[in-house]
Amino acid sequence: MHADRTNRLALTLFGLIVFLAGVAGLVASVGGFGKAFSRHTLFANRVSAYIAVHGGWLWPAAAAVCLLIALVALRWIVALLLSTDRAGDITITAGGKQGTTIMHPAALTGAVSREIETYHGVQAAKARVLGDPRGLNLVVTVTADQSADLRALCDRIESQAFSHVRQALGKPDLPIQLDLDVSRHVPERVS
Amino acid sequence: MRVINRPLAFVLAAVLAVASVILIIEVIAFAVHASPVLVHWATWDSWARRTRWDAVVIKVWSVILIVFGALVLAFELKPRRVTRLRLRSDQDATDPAMTRRGLAGALRAAATDIDGISGAAVTVRRRRARVAARSAARSSAAAAALKEPAAQAVRRRLDDLQMRHPPRLKVRVTTRSR
Lengths: 191, 178
What we know:
The complex is a heterodimer of chains A (191) and B (178).
Chain A: H1 4-29, H2 35-38, H3 46-53, H4 55-82, E1 90-93, E2 100-103, H5 105-117, E3 122-132, E4 135-144, H6 150-169, E5 176-182
Parallel strand pairs in A: 4-5
Antiparallel strand pairs in A: 1-2, 3-4
Chain B: H1 5-31, H2 41-50, H3 56-77, E1 84-86, E2 94-99, H4 100-112, E3 117-124, E4 128-135, H5 140-161, E5 168-174
Parallel strand pairs in B: 4-5
Antiparallel strand pairs in B: 1-2, 3-4
Helix pairs in contact in B: 4-5
């Protein structure tokens, strides 16, 4: 599991709960739930009374829920520390009885980067393969010269390098993300 | 992704896990009449039984919770700064884009290619791009004369990219500061 969306969702939920708890506390404190209620002690309410009466089963139930929360939290921590969105080895099946080929992602990214770096106007290219074997995704970042014709370069990368990648993997619809950057190195001007 | 989200999420997950384990231990300890073990919850219990809702400490803590919760919410819900601006493509499976910095560099290069422009500061956002070019000359008339060619060059560069949603362009030329 790549945990970025989970992190954002959980932190948003946490922020909302803390915010609402604060609002509820302040409203109760300034008499928003009635002046009489604001003069009660914190545990002098129905919920506390219910917990006091049914504590025999409620606290063990709360402990069981906490066990689930602790397990989910541990799973979350493991995902945070160990997860990666990088793909593992890629299996290429030619079909029929021709067997399968296992390709290391570095072989693919190295080949596509080297090909793109030979194109005119390209300073550097790097690629990474994301996802799992069922849903591979190639992300290519290309740094071009400031003087490069970026549209022509983009079209060439799409029609040549990306076609070669898709052909090599036997996946004509392989999703590929191309990020074009421009070098910050300013070429010398001749005056 | 915001890099800070990972450590924040780690802290939240760790706090949840530790708090849950403490509660489980205390419930078991209470059942075997050995409580409290890790947390002196009886002290908190007696404090809550004698503290009223209108106490100052409740107001203070409520405000702290509101501020903290609002900060977390604002941080998480604030729209992410755009990092890539998508280009048109004939292939559905290909998603080409200019990085925000890349587009700024391309527009800067287009502006500084004009004779008389010595430099340019470019700001690219999701829907607009601002190019503030500096003329090599110090007279404002010279700077004004450069505005149209600079704007045309930058516009041409932007059009050539064939972006899906090109940002609105604003170009100005300032004189070189003395």
